[in-house]
Predict the 3D structure of the following.
Amino acid sequence: MLKALVKKQLLELTAPLRRSSATGRRRTGWKAAAFGVLVVCLFGLVMGSVGVLDALICPPLTAAGLDWLYFALSAAPALLVGVLGGGMMAYSSLYAARDNEMLLSLPIPPGMILGVRMGYVWFLGLGYQALVLAPAYGVYFVLGSRPVAAALAMVPVLASLGCLVLAVSCLAGWAAAMLGGRITRYKAVLNLVYAVAVLALALGANVGVRQGLTWLLTHLDQVQTLGGSAWLVYLLGSAAAGEGWAVGLLAAAGLGALALCWLVLRRNYLRMMTTRRAGARPAYREKPARAHSVRRALLGREWLRLAGSTSYMVNSTMASILMVLAVPVLVWKAEDLRALLALWPQAGACGPAAGCGLVCSVAAMSLITPPSVSLEGRTLWLIQSLPVTPWQALRAKLDLHLVLTLPPALAAAGCVVWLLGCDALSAGLVLAETALFTLLTGAAGLVLGLRLPNLHWTNETAAVKNSAAPVVTLFGGWAALAALAGLWWVTRGLLGPAGALAACCAVTAAGCIGLLHLLRRWGTAAFARL
């Protein structure tokens, strides 16, 4: 029975290699091999990037006798990455697995199910850690001072860190299971907040790491006493470097945390698997019905679809959130930015076009319309059976893009205009080009969504992230922006900066008119044929 459970988990782990989430079809032959090569190349790219950074800091730290600090700078991020990755998988794997009822109907002890699933989460957390820690060991084997001791400690350290990650992941999954019923209504919004928080953490960590490494490499003489004040970091780094006492303490901590987690979960695991915590019960309240126009009703339908899909909301509205957050940042750092612009001799002539291009490049990342047709999926017949025309249905999708993207884009462009101190003509042209380019990318995304639909997905994430339409729209929008920048550069000598920007507005407006005409003619017929 244990062998069968382990085999089931291995099949679940390798399922993305054997079956496409976009179409639900089985990958065979060269398709499976190509997907495997793509995954290996992606992992190699991540590990290679980490290895380059490790190669820069390893020689000076090992020459100063700070081998423990070198490994601490790699082990601490590896632990964090493992917790973030394993925590996301613990809830769906341990507490909300789809095969709970099937397994409980078989003569399998719940403790055995728990053990196999905990091993699965442990293996996933170990893989996330290896992306960061394995390149550090590889660099140390070549450039380090004690490669043999580090090689002997590598496997025990990875296993011990995996146990710590597993314990924390199980705790995070348990908290999500306890709160699951209470936050179901706001699940998509909370996931969006979580994604924004992770992005802010990553940006802050990037700045902090660069400043910290700069200080570290220029003050190595002051780091000798750091181990006494940060003993947990010292323990982690010493264990990874191969110090026997540290490896023993880390292994004891990892196994102890794992044993405690196992005892707590084993006692309550059966109840957790069989309990369904529903959200708040809806209460009927009588209220007068209000009639809305067809356009507003269809826009409300698109809004409800967006708010009810976590992957759609997170991946499609991130650009709007970034532009909203950029407004207070630009106002807060206005004086510093003006001082920086004063060092640019051509800021007065090129500033409006450069600022407009920056805002438009972020607005091009708003991918609301490209997956909107594919997300209809097998329920496409519902919108096609309503007493509305295909153009009204398509216009509602474009309206949602404009409602969510245009106001943040205009606000960010307005801040750029205020920051640069543009005249009225340049300011109006910047705002006009921003609005036109936002409409252009939305209409282009809708055309590509109709031309490259994916209506046979098994997971909505495949329609949002793995379809061709969002990818082509994103890079196509940036390519169009690069072409407009080239047009401005070529015509600025003849027409002047403002005249060149007006020419870009005219070209963008012509593109918008052409795409809207294409949607009215070809797009409506294509939508009706789907």
Observations:
- DSSP finds 21 helices and no strands in the chain.
